[in-house]
Structure formats: structure tokens, C-alpha cells
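Record format v2
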Amino acid sequence: MAYRAPVEEVLFLLQHVLNVQHYGNLEGFDDVSSDSLEQILSAAARFAEDVVAPLNQPGDGEACRFLAGSVKTPRGFKEAYRQLVDDGWNSAAVSAKLGGKGMPYVVAAAIEEFINGANQSFAMYADWGFYASLLMDAEGIEQLRRDYLDPLIAGTWSGTMALTEPHCGTDVGMIRTAATPQPDGSYRLNGTKIFISGGEHDLTENIVHFVLARIDGAPAGTQGISLFLVPKFEAARAGMLGKRNGVQCLGIEHKMGLRASATCRLHFEDAKGWLIGAPNRGLKQMFVLMNHTRRACGVIAVAGSEAAYQRASTYVKERVQGRRARACDNGEESKAALLLDQPDVRRILMRLRAFIEPARALVLWMALQSDIYERSREESAKERARERIELLTPILKAVLSDMGFEAAVQAQQLFGGHGYIVSTGVEQYVRDLRVLMIAEGANGVQAMDLVMRKLFRDDGRGFRSFVNDVSQAAQDMPEDLEFLNEAMSRSLIDLIAAFDWLHGASAADASAGAYDFMTMLGLVSLGYMWTLIIAAAGKVLSAEEGMHRAYKIARARFFMERLLPDTGAYLRRITSGAQDFLNLPADAF
Amino acid sequence: MAYRAPVEEVLFLLQHVLNVQHYGNLEGFDDVSSDSLEQILSAAARFAEDVVAPLNQPGDGEACRFLAGSVKTPRGFKEAYRQLVDDGWNSAAVSAKLGGKGMPYVVAAAIEEFINGANQSFAMYADWGFYASLLMDAEGIEQLRRDYLDPLIAGTWSGTMALTEPHCGTDVGMIRTAATPQPDGSYRLNGTKIFISGGEHDLTENIVHFVLARIDGAPAGTQGISLFLVPKFEAARAGMLGKRNGVQCLGIEHKMGLRASATCRLHFEDAKGWLIGAPNRGLKQMFVLMNHTRRACGVIAVAGSEAAYQRASTYVKERVQGRRARACDNGEESKAALLLDQPDVRRILMRLRAFIEPARALVLWMALQSDIYERSREESAKERARERIELLTPILKAVLSDMGFEAAVQAQQLFGGHGYIVSTGVEQYVRDLRVLMIAEGANGVQAMDLVMRKLFRDDGRGFRSFVNDVSQAAQDMPEDLEFLNEAMSRSLIDLIAAFDWLHGASAADASAGAYDFMTMLGLVSLGYMWTLIIAAAGKVLSAEEGMHRAYKIARARFFMERLLPDTGAYLRRITSGAQDFLNLPADAF
């Protein structure tokens, strides 16, 4: 069962739902209104399908191996990485000025989906050109940029984000890695970092670590964290290797999944590093990147769900098993049927599709908001995009990763006993996608971020403005699709009631309701995407594509009738409050 | 973090919620009203904690290994198995007449929980004395019983249940393994079976396969399936090994979890076997066993959830990470707090406890129903127990395995990044518990069995009678706990509405709603258990145990406010019908 990148679906979303051709005035969008969009996506699809996907299952079996400080990636990864770089997919989103392809995020996100759908572990190594360009945007580091950023963007070197330490993950204020100023303006770093993806490997000749550390004497907590560039090898001159630095890989983690991605323990011992930007601003700088990687979790969740769905869909169309409903009641046995003919199997398939399609729309829509925010010259459009990004980043990170994991579990379920066997190739998606609920800030942290920090800013202006858009889109549905408007209206009422309740609640009650609110907002966001998809399908899908539109309406109906109404249950949970369990002593747990 | 068998909790349930001391008139119950119950459970707990649990994580790492037709279990399994047999835990539920311990199921189920909580893979090898005694209850096989059943009960030999073939799992009517009658009254079996747990291993000197096969010329479908006993070694005389039989292990599966349990592909080539019972009655005979193993899935789900919860609870009481809610708003940073002090962490812990406690009650309550059904002389009590078993077996198998898996995922989540690392020891529960949703008939099959076969039998008498009991228990709640009655009443209304809708629905619509109905019935059953638990806690927990009662009330409230009300969402899903997606052509999926 080969992975097929969903090019047609992405084209429909970009051209008809998001109308990217209307954004020709934004940098990098000049190409996207022409045939070249299809060419770019098809080329990326071929790379993902032919080069990357075949390495997925073998890579999981072989896994990364650690030997004497080095990490060997699975067979074939090196060659695939070289082609990734040769084709320039690693720098799709990097601005052309810096030597990248300068594609809009909305296109780069689609490519990111394809590569992740083909091989989530491999994709972990692929984006350091872009990430480094975000981190190295500070003033006064022109020399560092010449020495390090160019090869990072070229992909001949790769990077890492080094935050977590053994005693602290989420709580970065507790970081202990120490940076001591040196007379030449550099720093000496000492400390240990864990869970560093790509901290050591054999795909590139050099690895550049972006490290959060504390300058000697810096204030306690998050106010004293600075960002450093610490290379494995110093740059002798641009792109050329110099001296080996004091960074050692102590080992790699044996993980539940994502086994072909090297998760490293790194030890910094008098490692030479350079401060990036102002001292004690490291957390803020890292958050520019973190917000991208959090949204990327949504992209990856869609990618993995799609891949798992494709396998399940192929299987149930081939596997003959079980009888048609109620055939057993008349004493006779009917002929065995395809699994696809079992109503409960169809229910699961519908559930997957009803999630995957709007989830893909949402990640692309959010990527477009980033494009607008970063490239538009219209202040009101920028501000609106900023609000959407702020509000919905936790949705992409957390709600899509929760639902994506659940989708993989359901896809696995359709295989019966075979789904539990490694060689079938579907359980890997469950193990790989599981990490998205944990990495880049566990999903509970996202809920806190949303409700305790973002939601009520400026009196909840961003939320109210988003709700208005959602409500308007629902009201614009044609009369024969009134069920969309009805379902959305009901859930918007639930959502607003939850918002109002949280607004007046104690911090503790609000915290205890945060996760459920986040999930509600996620469901409404997906419903919003369904209204946009259906509106576009009604306009552009011609007569011969009528069935295509009918399928989408059936999926939207499934979503509106069977998934969205859960907002009522979430509202009840939130408003039940939490005092009785927040006040329990520790021995009650 | 050592596993602790929940002896105290089980004693509370047995003595005060289920009142097992009132059943002294049933065989095997004479001991349970005395101190010996505590002694038995404590001894089983020590065995599980000290002998079995330490092998769990190493066993997952080492896994079973296949070499030239043989299977090597992980280090220590042989010794632990020997002690299991020496202590007689393998025959806890086997009747004393047959040489077993003759314990009530309700006690044996608790012991089963302890051993599974300690090590799910190991426990897979432990119950063949009991299973064989169920399968070998037929007439006319006295010699077979002497030759094979005695060593199976003694545990010197073990057994397997061999149903699945490469082309058929759920749909046993498609079985192809052929049995050819021989002049001496035996049969020659030829065919291949897959997914055979314990099909080959090094724990016992002999393995007795209970095989479903088709006698030459038998009717097609399930009406032509017979049950055979096919040993690895023939018995020379009682308990002594004779000739090696034509059963070969072709290999073992590399699975997502349960890696220390050998899942075998078996090839039968002119293997000698004996018919058990009448020809063509094999499926019915096997179902006596299957109904037990399906209920056992519920026991195992509770066991794994409890074990995962214990780890998470220990971790969040030690791990300092994150700040108290809203501390960040005033610009200052508060001192880092225990994870236990985060409201969202408490929400997750409560969710786990709110499920685990009534789930344990439910599996023990169901075991007691089996005791009553098999041992009572009162016809009305037997019939009532039969109805409960029929109705709720799918709940134990499917709803508890769904919720148990989810519980393990949530427990893992509390560890953040560490939860994804194998050595932390929590992700194994996710992988191990996953199988329960698939094995013994995938959960979708359970939903079909419930709604399409069991629910409407005798005009739904069993369902109505159960609903009456549940309703009565809710109404009996004291006034200060009126929230229990209110929540239960609302959900019972939902449940009955769903029942009525399904009753009038087409077969296809009913099939598409079956899974959601099953989950509703599961939630209501767990709620029922909460009412029984709270009623008992109010009566028996003395003043110094007041907190204990208060904790249970807080958990019950969490369940009633945050989990049970989901029945409303399920009802909406069911009644939305399924025609629009059941009618879609295959290319829509």
C-alpha cells in the first residue's frame, strides 16, 4: 500500500477554498495563480511518494543507532536527505533573499504534509533552513549569519532546538545550562540537554544547536534565559568546517515511535557559543520558532491521519469478512461481504474523513494567515491575521494532534488483529503520531496558554472577531444546506456560553475547564472549515464533479450531526466547576 | 515505581458493595465471608508484585524469540510460571472436583486483575487450566479428560484457542482447516492458524491446541465447524508425553505490544486430533470460552489502567514543573509547583479514577453474576444473572477496553516527553492495552453482537430489567447525594430513547448506531456501579474513614458531571441515522 500525496485535494483547497490566487500582491504569491502551483505540488508529491515513503517502515524497524558518540540513521535516509536538499524542499519556505525558494507558507505547508505523510521521522530532519532563518533574524549577528545560516539554508548543515533539560521541559524558567562570557565576545556553555531531535546524526557534516542557557548572573526564571548558537564544528569560513566544539551526544532515546528520528541527550562542556540577539530575551526568540513548530504539529497530524486512512481504506475495500447486517436473523448465512459494506466500518471511515478534510483546510488556512501577517502591507489585515494565529495555534497543536492520534487508532482498528502486527504497517502511525500530543509543549499546556493567556486579551477581541466570521460563513450557506447553519449556530451558542463562564470563573476553575474549551473551539474551527469547503464545492465543482460535491456534503453532514454536537457535553463539563477535586488532599490521588 | 495490587479496594468492593458474604449457599463461597478472603488476596498480591511485576518491562524489551520452530519466552518467565503453578493461581477458578482451587469467579477475577496489572503478557499463559475445563465439559470424552485435562489443570501443560486463519478472523464461518476421520476414531487435521497466543513456548513441556476445523463434507459456514483437541505431544498415559504430533510453529508475530506473549502461526499437517462433543457444534462450544475471555478483556483493561494510573500518580507527586494558575499574569513568577497542583493534571487524574473504580466494580459484579448463574439453584436468580451476562459482556469487552486504552494514553500524557520514552515504563501500557480493543472479536463486532443479536431478544426484557435495577439504585441515593440520582435519571432517559429509536430503525441504521449505543450503555453501567459504591461507602466507612468516603463522592461527582452526560451526544449521533453514508459508492471512501 503506497502512500499517495493528496495533491488534488490540496489544489481544491488552495484554489477554491482559500483562493490563494487573490493574494498576488503578497511576496512569493506571484506564481501560485498559474499552473506552476500544480507543478510544484506534483513534484513534491513524487519526491514524497517515491523517495521518502519507501523508507518509512524499514526506518521504524531499523531505527537510529548510537555508537561511541555518533548516530547512524536508517539505510537510505542519507540519499533521501541529499535529494531533499538538491530539490530544495528543505528551503521551500525560506525567503528568496536568503537563498530559499521563497514559497508562501500556504504552499510550503502542503509540501510539509506530503513529506510527513510519507515519513514522519524523516521529515524531522528537513526544516532547519527555515527554522534557522527565523532564529537568526536578530541584529548584530551578520558574521554568524554568513558563517552558519547559509549552509543551514543550503541544507548541507542542519540544526537543533535545545531547550529541555532532565529536570525541566515545559517549565523553561528552570533551565540551568550556564553561559560564561569570554573576552572574545563568545560564551562557554556548560550543561546537559535532553530530547534534542536531530542532536546528532550522519545526514549532514555539521549540526548547529540553538541553545537556551542562562548567562552567569542572569535573573532567575524565564527573564534570565538567552539564546545561543553552539555548533558541533565551528565554521572556519563560510560553509567550511573548523574546530570540533565541546558538544557530545551521550546517547539516544529508545522511544515508543518516531524511531528513525534521533532524540539525543547532549552534553555541553566548555562549548563555544555565540549570543543571538539581546541577553535574557532567549525565550521570546525561541517562541517565534515554537509557534511555527506548534502549528507544524497540526500539519503532521493531518499528514499521518491521511496516510493511516489511505491504508485502512484500501484494506476494507479488499478484505472479505463478516456478513451483511441482520442476515443471521433468518437462520441462513449470507455471502461474506467486503468490510466496506459493514455499516460500523463505514461509520469509522466517515469519522476519519469528516475530520481529515477540514483539518487540512484549517492548517492551510492558518498558514495563509501567517503569510498575510508577515507579508501584507495592510495593517488591518495583518492585525486580523495575528489574532487568528494567536487564537488558533493551540488548536492546531493540540486539538489536531488529539484527533489525529485518535484517527490513527481508528484506522488501525479497521485491520482487526492484523492492525496489531508491526509488518502490516498501520500501528506505526499510532506510535508516531502519539508524540504530537506531547512534544512542543504537552497538550494540557496548550490549553492553559489558550485560556489563561490568549483568550481574554483585549477583552477577548480576537475570539469575538473569529466567532463573527464563523457565524457569517454559516449564515451564508444556501437554503438546501441549512443543516450546516443550524448545527454551527447551536455549537456557537455553546462556545460563547463556555467563553462567558470561563471569563467569570476563578483561575482554578478556568484552568480545569481549559482543555474542554480548547477542544470545543477546535470542533467549531473544523466546522467553520466545512462551511468554507461546502461553499467552494457548490461554486466550482462542475456537473461531472457532482458526486465529488455530494461526497463532501455527506462528510460535512456526518461532522455536523455526529461530531460537532459534542460541544454541548463539553460545555456541561466546563460549567460543572472543579472546586471539589481541586481541594482534595494529595492522598486522594 | 513498583506495581501495588489494589487489595484494599477489592476487599471494599467484595465485602461491602457486592456483599459476597451473603452468598454462602453457593459452592466455593463458604470461605469468602471470613478472614481467608483477605489472606488469599494478599498472597496473590505478593505473587503479582514480587514475582510477576519485575518481569514486565524487561519482558517487553526482550520479547519472545523464535528459533527453528521453538519459542523462547523472556528471562524469568519460566521460574515465575513455575511458581504460579506451585501456588495454584493458574487453577483458582477451576472447580475443586477437577483438582482446582474452586474459588468463586468473583475472587478469581480479582486475582486475574492483580496478575494482569503486574504483567499482561505473562498473564496470557496463566489460565489454561480453567479454559480447558470449560472446553472439555462434553460427554463421551472421559479418556481425553484423564489424558489431557489433568495436566492442563495442574499447569504442567498449557493450551491454546486456535480459531483465526490468514483469510478469516471475525468471520469463523470461513474456516478452512480440514479434519479427516480416521478408522481409530481420531481425525487428521490439516490447515494453518494464525494469531495463536501461546501456540509455542518453553514454559510447559506440552501444549494442547483447541482447534476449530471442518470435518470433510460438513455444511458450509458456521454450521460446519467442529472443535478438536490437537496436542503438540500425544499423551502416552496420564500426564506423560508420547509421540510428537504434526503441529509446527512457523513463526511468531512482531507486535505493537504484548511482546512477551508468543503470538504464533501454526501449521497442522496430518496432525492427530480428537473431536470434542458433537460434530458441527464447535462454534457454540468455543463461545462458552469466548464469553469468558471477552469478559476477561474488561478485567485486563482495569488492571492496566490501574497500573498506568499508579505510575502517573507517583510521578505527578514528585515532579516539580510549571507554575500555579495565573501566577504569570502579575508579571512575577511564582515558585514552581508539583504537577499535582496543576488543575488540568488533577482533571486527568480524576478522569482516570472516575473510570477505574466503577470499572473494577463492574468486572467483579459481572463475575458474581457468573457465579450466580453457574452455582445458584434458584431459577429466577440464575435467569436474571444470565440476562445481565448476556447484556453486559460486550460492555466489559469493548467499552472497558476503549476506556482503558484511553486511560493509559492519559496516564502517559502526564509524563510529558518522558512518557514517550520506553524506559519510563508507561508507554508499554498503551501498547499492551491496545490489543484488548482488537482481540476476542474487534470492538465493532461486540457492538453488532449487542445491538443486532442480544438487545431486542424477548422484546428487550434483559435490557428493561437492568434499567429498572439501575433506576432503583439511583432513586435510593440519600438526599444529600441527589446529584447522583439526577445525573443517572437524565442519562437513563437518553439510553431508553436510543433503545426505542434502534428498535424501530432499519438494520443498517441500527448497525451504524450500535457502537454509540454500546458506549452509552457502558457509561450508564459505570454510573450504576458508582451508585452502589457510594451507597456502600455511606454505610460502612466509619468516621476515621470519612475522607475515604469523601474522595469517593468527589470521584462519583466527577463521573456524573463530566463523563456520564456524554450520553446526550451519543443519543444525537444515533438518531441522526446513517442512510446518507451507507448509500455512498465505494469511491467516496
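Chain A has a mean pLDDT of 94.
Chain A touches chain B through 102 residues (CB under 8 Å).
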